[in-house]
Design goal:
- By secondary structure, the protein is an alpha+beta fold.
- It has a single domain, classed as TATA-Binding Protein (2-Layer Sandwich).
- The protein contains two helices and eight strands, in the order βββαββββαβ.
- It has helices at 26-34, 70-84, and strands at residues 2-7, 14-18, 22-24, 38-42, 46-50, 54-58, 63-66, 90-92.
- The strands form two sheets. A six-stranded antiparallel β-sheet has the order 1-2-7-6-5-4, covered by helices on one side. The protein has a two-stranded antiparallel ribbon with strand order 3-8.
Length: 101
């Protein structure tokens, strides 16, 4: 689900970028994540959760993973993808092609 994991330029964090374009229903995401991790805040435009690290989840699917460990960031992005895969929280775009970075 996530193909690009790169360090953020301004903080000790990593950014995970979706392979395909989709939109997240953050209300449904909150319901899903409430069962598996801690919800820190739901700010409307993003959902912030805590599991192995703190993660800001954006409506466009981007994740900002607050950790200085690439391994932790990769594992956490995989866990989030697993929790969301196949749920109605993901709304794929009809013209969803791969994002190129």
């Amino acid at each position: 689900m996530y193909s690009v994991l790169k360090p953020c330029k301004t903080s000790a964090a990593f950014e995970a970028i979706p392979r395909e374009r989709f939109t997240l229903d953050l209300d449904l995401c909150e319901d899903i994540f409430r069962k598996v991790c801690t919800i820190i805040t739901h700010a409307g435009i993003m959902l912030i959760v805590s599991d192995q690290c703190e993660v800001s989840i954006h409506k466009d699917g981007r994740l900002i993973l607050k950790t200085d460990s690439g391994d932790v960031a990769r594992e956490q992005a995989g866990r989030i993808a697993g929790w969301l895969e196949g749920t109605p929280a993901i709304r794929k775009h009809r013209d969803s092609g791969s994002l190129k970075k």
